[in-house]
Fold this protein.
Amino acid sequence: MEEQDARLVDLIESTSFEALSEEEKRFVLKHLTEAEYTLQRKVLGAVSDLEYPEPDPLPLVLKPEKKGMFSRTIPLYQALIGAACLLLVFFVVQPGKSRSLNLNFSENPLQVSFTNPATSVQIIHDTITKEIPVLRSASSIIRDTVTIVQYVLKQPENRMLEAGNTLVMPPLNEQLLENKSLAFKDDQTARFLPQITFVNTMK
Amino acid sequence: MVQVMNHHSHPALMELHRRYSKKLLGYFIKMLNRDTELAQDFVQEIFLKLLEKKHLFDPEKKFYSWIFAIASNMCKTAYRHHGKTVSLHTQAHEKAVLSDSELEKNLFLKALQTSIDNLELHHKSVFVLRYLEHFSLNEIAEITESSLGTVKSRLFYATRKITEELKPYDPSFETTLFKLI
């Protein structure tokens, strides 16, 4: 369809109906009458006779020149501060840092007390990397490191009744059983005791 | 010219204005239905747009085509925002007694002008560029960012639409029609 329109335009612009070949006439008459074809040519010829106002253009009025953001110059100190901030951000936010999960278990479990045989185990989940997506920043992902310390109270595997002879007793010696106390009358420290008078009220 | 523009100098812009403003003003007047004031505003605006959009210019293409492409887009935007401007010359549609040949011609031209004003924008644009501004078909294709076939097709439909409206003003058409019947 577009090709036919293009051919019609070429013919209308260039050739009068009478000057068309027989094949061109047949082609034209499929789409237009002879009168329409002739009128279209007349229209194109008359267009040049149309009168439009032709005023002189007004002088160009320009606003004060605007400078684009990237064409502006900035003072040297601002550039240096910017570079320093960039370096700081680069060293603080390290996007390629490896992620690791270290679990540290204490080799010698800490005993809660001498009398309570339960032990506590300290588990340290170190360097857990958390990724926080953000829209626009120096790095598209903020990586945060979290250290979690976990204490697990661990009961002894053997119950007390089933335990063997694990109670540590201090060594007994004879001195402990020996009676070395002095009589009250011989005791020099008895003078520090308050004087008490007993009164018999049963009489 | 564009090399001068790249230096962002006002004298270069003034030179462009001197060369192209008259032609652009004529195009805007025809596209905006002879609204001269609006056309003057558009001419001012297009040179400010040149400064803003100079980075979009392809040096491989003609500057003339590029500036008219911007002008064409401005008209498109104006049509979209304000609708088609109503012509003040509707009285030309009134069929008159065609006794005097001069009067007949004037009426025909007025009717033709009105018909052009009332065309759809995409038809009017190619018609004005081709037959009033005398651009080549390839240049129009470049300006309107369409294919050569599309340009020709639009030209044909624009001419046919105008012809339909002008049939009553053409005595020879009536004569030919009478003959055909």
